[in-house]
Amino acid sequence: MVRPLDGFRVLDLSDETGFLCGRMLAELGADVIKVEPPGGDAARRRPPFVGGTADPERAVTWLAYNASKRGVTLDVMRAEGRGVLDRLCATADALIETYSPDAIAAAQLDYATLHAAHPQLVVCSITPFGRSGPYADYRASDLTITAMGGNMALTGDPDRAPLRCTMPSSYYHGGAEAASGLLVALLARAVIGHGQHVDVSLQAAMVATIMTGASQWAMDHRERKRTGASYPVGKTLQREVWPCRDGFVSYALRGGAARIPGLAATERWLAEEKIDAPAWEGRDWTAYNHNDLTQEQIDALSGPLHELFARKGMRELFDESVKRGVMLAPVNDAREIANSAQLRSREFFVEVDDRGRDLKYELPARFARMTPYESDVRGAAPLLGEHNAAVYGSVGIGATELGELRRAGVI
Amino acid sequence: MDSSNQQQMPKALAGLRVLELGGGAAGPIAVRHLADHGATIIRIESRERPDFLRILGLSATNKNLDAAPMFMMLNCNKLSVALNLSDPRGVELAKKLVLWCDVLAENYAPKAMRKWGLDYASLVKIKPDLVMVSTCLMGQTGPNKDYPGFGGQGSAISGFNFLTGWPDREATGQHGTITDSLAPRFVAAAVLAALLRRQKTGEGAYVDVAQVETAAYSLSGWMLEFFASDEVVERDGNRSRVASPHGVFPCGSNDRWCTIACHDDADWQRLVRAIGAPAWALDGRYATLAGRKQHEDALEQGLASWTRKRSAEEVMTSLQGAGVEAGIVETCRDLNADPQLAHRGHFHPVQHAVLGDHPCEALGYQLSETPGAIERPGPLLGEHSAFVYHEILGLDDGAVAALIAEGILR
Question: How many angstroms from the chain centroid is the CA of residue B46?
């Protein structure tokens, strides 16, 4: 079946911070070739591992975010390897890289050099702060990117340190943002006739996660603070995440045209459960505006909800809410997501038959359904050097030269 | 690069026409990737049922639909036409705009577009090369497709809430209805891929993006570990399995914080030197990652005793100067003064008729030769109606007056 990016070739020289971008492009149809050093990408050496024992072919992060790609080994830091990279670049539409500034300088992997040799090439740099500017040389992983992107200061309980997400969310925001930027640049080749530099800042991508909070500060100079499971709304603090019998659910006491039917349905639900809820009964929901409530009024509305949620489990609360049109959601963990009837009905998880490793595992299949195109995961992440012969053969490197490069430790 | 230069440079998507229906954040943010690169965006809106972001944060007494900052900040570079889709004549005019556009982007609940006859199956008959994207919370199919939800629910359903918090406390979730900012990046990528294909073959496409699925797809690593081990990785504060220290440390006493992370033993040695090699830090139990993980509580206390005597700025610059990862936990005020974001021109000033001067935020990537630009503030509701009625729909003054009188153009 046809994929929208059939015919495009992308060289993926990224580390964990940029893996997702290439996986997306591969599932959209590009021939994405993961280029890693002969010893393997650092992500292959980091836990967790499938089966629990350290094995570079069973590193979870590698497997999860390099699915659908082909893979070659190449030491681009050595001159012979850098020369081979040029031969690959000549056949490619785009290159993704996440190198440190030192490595860029050492291997002449800067945009100007790549562009001079390969004008058709779109070069996408995914770095914590962007390729230029006062922080361009700063070191940062997800922890620091989330902090300097403004999300962390607003996340977590007020009596403890600000928080990140335990999974590296900035790599996901940034990876998908990079894919979009890279595709804009591919479209722009029709306008300007050649490739260009796509300079992704993970920090800038994270600023968007606070939903214009920084720009609103510029207008009102009102400093927003982290407020735990609650959310500042109007003059009040309103719960967003609520405990229930076996976990947590998300529910907001907010109004607006889309939410008001759910509030009215909640009133009926409380009545059926015979929960004493004077703040809910007989209220004119069409006139409800959460911005005008006092904390006392919010607390009076919240009490009966705590009682309702404490009686029931997450699954039951969600199923009932779907039936009743109440805007409540379960705070799912991986097990509940894996068993979600909605996701299963959309065949969101597919089993990857990873014969090279004698493994079978499920993965999220796609981020978009695209009629009339295919966009599902294309197969397991590459074994170390799995496609060396095929890829290098396609750029005229035969068995003899490949052998020499291998002996020299370049491949 | 200053904005006048940006406006003179070629635009990647100049000439592309986009029709936008729906509201809230996830759909409109995705369209910004097209808008900022030169596409013409027309949003269909109505006073009959305004986008809820047009009233977000406003008091019940403030009925001004052109005064909500978040709406204006998210929808810069777009035009707004007033068109009431609850009247079939409004829908007929919308179909004429479908003939005008290349891309139709909508984020209503699935039943809305079908009700109006504006679903892809109907529209592809009149516009065979249409690229249409629908993005709702759960997707266009499945038992929960009509479940009404916002980003807050999306964050909960997809795992991001569960994964954020302290191990001994309730999940708090990451700030900011996280699927609202995550999903648009995927929506944009899918649409741009469809446009590349269309550039080559002339064919259209229909794209169905479930916001919850983009988030669960992002968490592929978490899901794969569950499938492989049948165990759920739990939230763990700021700690990491592969790095220590890896945390957020108090600076001074005024709720100021700075991150510190060491990814290997060499990082740790650099950190020890940078903080003056205090006796506690020289203890051999901290020399290896395993040792640092085992004694992480004590290690964090030791570091905090050093950071507490310093400002967050001082901790960041001294540790970064020593080659150690560290960064200020930036508040909204800090972001506005951040020299790196300023270097990128991340906050771009616009002048708005109601709000006055305010910033709009750039995308997370910069293109070297077609940088795009933020050229106009968010639209007043119906601000560009006259242009759309006359220039695109070809209505004369009499027809417009009649449709206004009948409540269709409002």
Answer: 24
